[in-house]
Amino acid sequence: MLSSLISKFKDSSVKRDEEISQIVPLSDCSKECDDCSTKFPSSVKIDDITNIYKSSKPTQIHFIIPTGKSDWESDATSTPNTIENEVSKWINKQTILEDGVKVSTSSLPFDSTDPRSYKGEVNDVLILPYFIWVKKLELSKVSSVLDELIPLLIKSRESSSSPPSEIQGFKIEPSNAFSYIFLCSHKTRDKRCGVTAPLMKKEMDFRLRDTGHYRDIGDDNPNGVYVQYINHVGGHKYAANVIIYLKTGEIIWLAKCTPSNAKPIIDETVLGGGKVWGDLVRCVQKGKAIEW
């Protein structure tokens, strides 16, 4: 019985890796860094048994709302009269894309010089995987701006043309980043994420400083890699969840990650051409590279 189960597990792993390798390359390097001394507390219990491949759905568009926070109320986008809530409502009624459209709050900073931003009435919106910022979007204009902008972004990417520079008077600004990495830190939803995310970020930022790709808040130098926190993404029992957007077109969602995986993820996945390890993959996608 045991040998049969082991054989079945190996067969499923081989099939999984073959499928993943048709989308992104598999890494030949170890997924763990032997020099990493940072570890999760023993109180953090992670599901190490379940096969996590395809445990999350592909993403078509991901709206990222800056809040400057690392934790939020349980339903982070439900607060009325906020940009995140208006985007959420737009997602539910839009007909441009059938599935894979979502909105998240993040630790990215908002414009603290604008009093309206504190109330959530005005905010910048990052649109991934398009690496586009909508600057100072107003609450009353969310639906009309997104109705006009999203089809244009889809068309611009497909035709390798430049995106619009403004929509209805709002500035549309390409991001200089090479990659955004998001770590679920939503402690209110699950304490594990509040513990694992800061430790993962610490190790990732440490490595990015070594490679010269670390970017602090306000540093817009090109080709940077930003590691930020994000609200609930699902699958907390698979913490740490790591969602990676690359300007080269890959969207890579890893899970069951530990601090010892941080350096290999930066070297192999983020800076090494999107290479992954099959047992850490929840979802992988490969689209057309962003040329702006």
Automatic annotation (TrEMBL):
Organism: Wickerhamomyces mucosus
Gene3D superfamilies hit by this protein: Glutaredoxin
Protein name: Actin patches distal protein 1
CDD domains for the chain: TRX_Fd_Sucrase
Domain of life: Eukaryota
Pfam families: Suc_Fer-like (PF06999)
